[in-house]
Amino acid sequence: KTGHGPVGQNKKHVAGAKKVIAVSSCKGGVGKSTVSVNLAFALKNLGLKVGLLDADIYGPSMPMLLNQRGAKPGATPEKKILPIDAYGIPFISFGLFINEKDPVIWRGPMLGGVLNQFLFDVAWEGLDYLIIDLPPGTGDMQLSMIQATDIDGAIVVSTPQEVAILDSKKGLNMFNQVKVPVLGMVENMSYFVPDDNTSKKYFIFGEGGVKKAAEELNVNLLAEIPLEIALREGSDQGKPYMNEKKYEGRPVWNAYMQLAK
Ligand code: ADP
Q: Which UniProt key words apply to this protein (predicted)?
């Protein structure tokens, strides 16, 4: 069945999800997974039903971020994979199907089949949004992942320091090539907010790097997400920041709610 995306032709619609959003980055370590997870909870905070798909085969961090390491997904009678529930968000991760100690190189041959299963054989149900955390980079593997799928929009995450016009351009080109609309860029780690003084901004990695790149490349800058210790701690503890109402109103919280809207 072809979907509702801009170019239906060979793209398969992910059953059970009204909209599919892909989160990508040109480099690793810029906060792509953190953004995927917290965007999902920000959308949930708006009353939407959201699912998460961790397709980052190099560093599937979602089981840790959602405190579900070692969880074993079940199957439906129709042999579809049942997503794991994490704080009201159904998710599935490549990391749940591999031995974390296996070298990355063994994962290659498994990819084709497993990724297809991930995208089309998971029993998603009644989702307003499915957020896909893509592997970092713009290679053939990423391309083949996104070209078979009916993706409604893509987000490119960068940090002010790591953003490079050439890389970002490659990222945008990858999505253009397969007719996936780019919603815009997200600047992560924009500035530091001390816990005791949320009005003072420290631009540790320089100011406005991604904004400049977005302007140059003619794409939207969707949000500037500050650095905050509690965000990193929450991730390490498997307690997503945007699921903790106590952070409501803080700069990181506000940036994610702006992104969700
Ligand atoms: P990627 O998915 O791009 O490899 P991660 O999401 O795993 O990157 O983030 C890398 C590290 O940076 C993690 O330890 C994460 O907790 C931390 N991190 C990401 N964004 C922020 C932020 N805005 N403030 C503080 N720590 C962050």
A: ATP-binding, Hydrolase, Iron, Iron-sulfur, Metal-binding, Nucleotide-binding
Quote the longest CA-to-CA distance of the chain. 55
Domains and CATH numbers, the chain: 17-55+127-260 (3.40.50.300)
Protein residue whose Cα sits closest to atom 6 of ligand 1: 31
Which protein residues are within 6 Å of ligand 1, measured from CB? Answer: 25, 28-34, 59, 61, 136, 188-189, 225, 227-228, 231-232, 235
Residue whose CA lies nearest to ligand 1 atom number 8: 31
Task: Please give the full DSSP string across 23-47, using - where no structure is assigned.
Answer: EEESSTTSSHHHHHHHHHHHHHHTT
Q: What is the ipTM of this complex?
A: 0.99
pTM: 0.91
pLDDT digits (tens, 9 = 90+) for 125-163: 999 999 999 999 988 878 888 888 899 999 999 999 877
Tally: H helices and E strands in the chain = 8, 8
What's phi and psi for 57, nearest 5 deg?
-70, -25
Beta bridge partners of residue 227, listed in sequence order: 192
Query: How many angstroms does the Cα of residue 222 sit away from the middle of ligand 1?
Result: 18
Type of residue numbered 160: P
Cα distance between residue 255 and residue 167, in whole Å: 24
